[in-house]
Amino acid sequence: MIKINENYQKLQASYLFIDIARRVSSFQKDNPGRELIKLGIGDVTRALPKACIEAFHKGVDEMADDSTFRGYGPEQGYEFLREKIAENDFRARGADISADEIFVSDGAKCDNGNIQEIFAQDIKIAIPDPVYPVYVDTNVMAGRTGNCIDGRYEGMIYLESTKENNYIPELPSSQADLIYLCYPNNPTGASISRKQLKAWVDYARENKSLILFDAAYEAFIRDEKVPHSIYEIEGAREVAVEFRSFSKTAGFTGTRCAYTVVPKDCAGYDSKGDKHYLHGLWNRRHGTKFNGVSYPVQKAAEAVYSEQGRIQTRELADYYLKNASLILQEMTGLGFDCVGGENSPYIWVDGKRDSWEFFDLLLNKAGVVCTPGAGFGKCGQGYIRISAFNNYDKVKKAMLQIKQALAE
Length: 408
Ligand SMILES: *Cc1c(COP(=O)(O)O)cnc(C)c1O
Known about the structure:
CATH topology of the largest domain: Aspartate Aminotransferase, domain 2
Helix content: 25-40%
CATH class of the largest domain: Alpha Beta
Strand order of the largest sheet: 2-10-9-8-7-3-6
CATH superfamily of the largest domain: Type I PLP-dependent aspartate aminotransferase-like (Major domain)
Distance between the termini: 62 Å
Number of domains: 2
Strand content: 15-25%
Order of helices and strands: HEHHEHEHEEEEHEEHEEEHHHEEHEEEH
CATH architecture of the largest domain: 3-Layer(aba) Sandwich
Bound molecules: pyridoxal-5'-phosphate
Number of strands: 17
């Protein structure tokens, strides 16, 4: 008899985006022809930078000729891309990371979800609330939690991000072995200072823990005080793995390219307490289960680091940041407490009422779609997330319509 992995039955069906879609389609049925402005999903809306497109095309042309054709590439990614990443994303910021510590992949979501495979079953896991659901669900699937009771899994440590702590959780009071952090944050848009991040690195060093640092929104950082990488913090090479993606950085959500940094100093321990380096474990996992990102896509990603590519990707992020700034200014002006919108494409708004009630109000009265915060965890109740991924004129219109709706 073929038996199933019963841990999957513990998963809470994510009704969030299904529920949003249901409410949106019912609104559209009742209001035919009325335009809806979507500031809900975390997906980019603007085309790939020109430099990336040119390199992408050239890569395809190389595949079309026997003399330049390429078959399987290195599982870890081509040297030409890994070198550029190490130089531009790390060494240029004083972070000591070498090309062979970088693993190119087809997504930060997969890497975030797959990394837990290299750790033991009985580790204690700390995850943020509100949270990007991948961190939680992949550990539930692997059987590292108990059942979900009242929105929380037994056996997990929840790191609460609230107004009281300025959306940066306090250090756990008990031992956490694996810690998930994401800054600039999805969904809150909050960013972390060097001093705050240093406290987490120090905690991890003292407790022989590992931090999984998701920096998918790094490209939106403009404030000098906000670290772009955890490796800007002293000692992080021993206790942190970092995830990056070209998805939000350069509009690659549909093109697929990302990377994970596993420094050679990063270690874990076996049941006897002996030290093992994670670089070797991840290399084994990656090489066994992954066959590399397509050559034209890696050429397109490499172009992000060209002179034109850098100008164009910065312009792309600046465009969304201008939207974010407008949303932050307007929502604050309407009397709402907000976080994010600076160094981030997300604005986390305290609606001062139930998340879904606020969602329905904005949908029905303003014709604007947002994301109810309650869908990201217990601490998200009462909040909504507004995304800056849209056209500037539409964002402007959305803000005007929200203002009018609330004045009614
Ligand atoms: C969008 C996003 C990613 C990127 O995922 P990809 O698979 O690289 O597209 C990773 N982490 C968070 C928190 C995100 O919001």
